[in-house]
Amino acid sequence: IAAGFVGWRYGRLLEGAMVQLQEAKAQAEAAAPQIRTLLGAAIDAVIEIDETSTILMANEAAYRMFGWPDGELIGQNVTVLMPPAEREKHRAGLRRYLETGESHLIGNVVEVTGSRRDGTLVPCELSLAAMTLPDGTRRFVGIHRDITERKQAEERIRTFAQAIESAMEGI
């Protein structure tokens, strides 16, 4: 009788766990269209990578910003979006984070230079977040904002200020 009770009790626990799993799956499926809509509406590039720097997800803005055809970033190493001179810094920073948990980027907004598919450079602000999934794997989400127009405006201001300074020296 005791064995039957124990078996029944574990069966009930397993049944409860299965119900919770089905509910969680239904919630995730319900949230998926909302997440896709949110990412599609974002004007900034949103890119998710794994621990090996493989791109798992890129929104429409990422494809536009970096000049890649839709779908072709998935499976690429994220370093294809960086100038060659910056790629080793990325690899070293990711290695350091995975080994020590130390990062100079995560949680900060930093200026970086991106590289479009055609090789032209694009100045960006990067905001990076890390997450650990329930199975222990880590994922990284980067939000890239194209700051080309701001950089051009800053350069015009510098040029104008230099011109005024030169004119003032002549007076």
How many strands in all? Answer: 5
Low-confidence stretches: none
Helix share, percent: 40-55%
> Structural class per helix/strand content?
alpha+beta
What does this protein structure show overall?
- The protein is of the alpha+beta class and 171 residues long.
- Strands 2-1-5-4-3 form a five-stranded antiparallel β-sheet.
- The protein starts with a helix and ends with a helix.
- The model has no long low-confidence stretch (mean pLDDT 87).
- Helices cover 50% and strands 22% of the residues.
Quick take:
The protein has 4 helices and 5 strands.
Descriptors:
5 strands; five-stranded antiparallel β-sheet; elongated
Q: What is the topology?
A:
Elements: H1 2-41, E1 45-50, E2 55-58, H2 60-66, H3 84-100, E3 109-115, E4 121-132, E5 138-146, H4 148-169
Antiparallel strand pairs: 1-2, 1-5, 3-4, 4-5
